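User: quick one - fold this with adenosine-5'-triphosphate bound?
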Amino acid sequence: MNKILAIDDLSVNLDLIRFVLTRNIPDCNVFTAISGKEGIRLAKEVQPNAILLDIVMPEMDGFQVCETLKNDESTKHIPILLISAYMQTTEDRIKGLDIGAEALLAKPFENAELISQLKVLLRINRAEEQLRKKNESLELFIKNQAEEINNNETRFLQISDYAHEFFWEVDSKGKFTYVSAVVENILGLKSEEIIGKKYIFDFYRAVSEKDESKKILFDIFKDKSYYNNIEISCLDSTNRKIWLTISGFPIYDKTSDFIGYRGVTHDITGRRKAEEELKKSLLKIKEDHKKLKRLNAELDVAEEKERRRIAEYLHDGIGQLLSIARISLSSLQKKSLSEDVIKIVLKSMELLNEAIVRSRNLTYDLSPPILYELGLIPAIRWKLNQIESNNKIETTIQSDVSKLEISNDTRILLYRIVSELLTNVTKHAEASSVKVNIYNENQDYCISVHDNGKGFNDADGSTLKNGGGFGLSSIRERLDSLQGQLDIESKINKGAKVTVRIPILNN
Ligand SMILES: Nc1ncnc2c1ncn2[C@@H]1O[C@H](COP(=O)(O)OP(=O)(O)OP(=O)(O)O)[C@@H](O)[C@H]1O
Ligand SMILES: [Mg+2]
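Assistant: Sure. Structure tokens for the protein plus adenosine-5'-triphosphate:
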């Protein structure tokens, strides 16, 4: 619907215009005003698509009305057709166009001329309207974009202000063109102090002359390559050593010319310190563990000495006393004593014999003298004999080594280890035979204990974790102190072969 406002001080003219317009322009709504003031008011209120304005009017003439409308934001876009009552001078026409009227029409005019001029104005109005709408939506779009950019920038600045990393940009010569403010928390330098300077190492120093980091960064810059998490260390402005990771990528302009680098530098000093602390703690744990092992070995030796002391006391003290008591009692046998007394003497001698056997066994169990007097292989042989008579297990021993060149302590340790392995066989294996083999292999002494029992699945010590005892793990610990090792080969129902190895040298 086209809205047209006609302003004229003569109502007859207004009626004529209404008549002509409604007949010739479809969809036309004509508003009329009888004075300039009224016309301005209506123009603001109705927002017509075009205005027909008579020049000659009392109080406010058409020029004044036109000027007012063209100076008002709400009406300046409405096209105006000035209509003069008589043939005007050229100056008047120029004046009309100067103050912003879109067209001029002199009376008397043909209706067709009025209509065609008006149609042109309506077309102008429509085109302007479309342009205005486009402009408005463009303005809105730009405003939204600007807001979005603004938000992103605020977000980026907020995040980058709290992060342990700073963003930067250098130009093709390596000069800093941007550095985010966090750089101050990391390097102790304000971004203004860095912008304009060249290369990172020119304003904060490498820890040592030999430091490769500087060269690495130069090479990357030369190659114009991408780089990711390059780790460097350097000194900050207070000479504190810090660790950084640097990532960056080359940037190019629209014509693919290299224009610099953009990247991020991350402060990993906290993490590196924690890692170093962890390393230190692990080292300390390792050292403590070593100490513990040494202590264990010393404890083993002390325990062995104590066992030997008790064994000697049993053998030389109690054993001797028991033997003397038996000799004294046996001298009574020769005396003429009553039958009852002789019975008691014989019973007592029987008990004394038993006590002597038991104390001897205990002595051997505690510390078999054979180990000290004849060595490891005879001691193991003796142990196997004990097992055979007590457990109904057939035992064999084979040795390719005539004499083991080992220290006293090592001999005792190996004896205890083999005893533990044999005890395991009697305790767990349900075996009918066990074989001990002693041999040399690749500069090692090896002793294997091989049974034909039910076997077990414990190559990695998992039996222990699942509720097994301390025997095997304490063997491993003891062997560690001799730089030795324990190998277990076993399958369920296929027996077990446990081999102890120690290097021939050093022991
Ligand atoms: N020769 C073997 N045959 C079958 N199973 C064995 C044999 N040796 C060890 N095992 C298995 O391995 C487990 C661990 O043995 P380990 O000597 O470490 O502990 P333990 O004998 O159970 O207890 P501890 O030795 O502390 O008295 C045993 O519980 C047993 O299940
Ligand atoms: Mg055991």
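One thing worth noting: Residues 420, 423-424, 469, 471 surround magnesium ion (ligand 2) (CB under 6 Å).
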